[in-house]
Amino acid sequence: MLFFYFEGRLLLSLVGLLALVCGVQSQADGNPHGWDRTRRCDQQDYDPPCGPCEGVGGIPTGSNNEEITLTSCEIVGSAEEMPEPMPVVWGTQWTLPIAYEVLIGKKNDPFCFQTFPGNDSVGDLCYRRQTGAKYYDMLGSLALREDLELETPVGNMTSIILHQGKNFWIVNHLPWYAGGVHQCICTDIKEGGAGSQVYYPVQYNWVEKMVYIGREIIGVEYLDTIEEMDHWAFGPHHLWTMPDTGDIIRMWQPFNGLQIYPGGVGQGTVDSSLFEEIPPDFCKAGGALIRIGCDDEGYPIPDKVRKEKAAARAKDVMEGNDAARAYEKVPRGHYKGMDFGEMSSVLNSWMNASMPSSPCSFWKVEEIQQLQALLYLARESEFDGIYQTTTDNRRLRHDTLKDLQTNWANLNEIANSHEDSRFKHVRRDGHCHEAVMWFVHHISQDMKELLRSASIPIPLLSPARHGVCDLNVDDARGQQICDKYKEQVTCASCHSNELPPTV
Questions:
Q1: pLDDT tens profile 450-490
Q2: What is the CATH number of the domain that holds 151?
Q3: DSSP state of 229
């Protein structure tokens, strides 16, 4: 499981791109999560050295040592006890129709959208499942491609990844909208996301760096088989091959992920037409709704130019009407109501006039959360900087955002299983208020125009003031929902003459 790492704003879903890490310094990160030698045992800097049935990993769900379903493993023999193994095989051209993966990477956003493998295991990590096809061509196109479906906390999405020369493209089809919302990221790959050294697609001979560990009888996840295979390692990266062919079937890296390659990636063929659209049309001017780091021809904008454009963009935003509203603590009179219901009615009239919208009761809470995920990605970070400085109620609660996906899932489950059905409505209505607040106060005007042009719907505010949360809720589960609801409807503190009820 070998990756490069790169930087970039709003990068969605960098998936299991196979590339060889240049410089194996990552095993010296101190193992901050305290993983045992079955989950992590590096080929270098471990004492005693990593041996058979160590560092084998499994299907991980979290960073705690026990948050993993370890694969089975039985030692057949060490490197010294086994005959000369068949070399690891990686073809110069091949097609892999299906691969099964769990991507592990740094947690950069609450939805684990912007997840890329890191060169150490420090900090919060994401664990995301993905499946799809991979295509590799170092004879003709000199490129690789992946067509993947990614599981996210707010729905599945598809992604096409292309890497040719120093250029790297990610085209994402974001979750759940029937018409589809596409995003293209144009970038290059640098180790650690910084520096001047740009890397090219992994070369066919990278496997020559692997060190033979021994032979094992090991369980292969997703294929539900147990195979006798040769175990190889380089730094924290481990792979298993079929003894008679050298085909790679399984790979594991404790802070990059798990990969299962049925049939391996030996010498084969590839459909060259898969590489004809480079750069992808979605990355060119007039293509995807959201284009990040792309020039009009669809190529990555050089770092210096990109930073200059970002600075100019921030300046434009901060000097525009949006920033003036962000600094404005008290809304003008035509955005206020005498009470909660009138406030909702007034603000809904403005929403109806500006965006496709529908009553809150028409939405499922999961759909609103999916919309909020899109709004989070499209937000203008300069606005939140203003709100954070003044502890404005419009600020994004970063302590909550850190574990947002977990909190949402837990509260959804509480509401769905609670004997009092009113909590389902509380849950949904709170998200309607929060989604509208994010849209109004965290999205720039030009992005609102883009969302409008794509017919992205926005829920209206629910006028209901839920009395069940005005009372002392007598069960802890219901209280969790009410506490979150009160946080979500804080817009009432400025847009009406009443404050959210307190307990």
A1: 888 878 888 988 887 777 787 666 788 888 888 888 888 86
A2: 2.50.20.30
A3: E
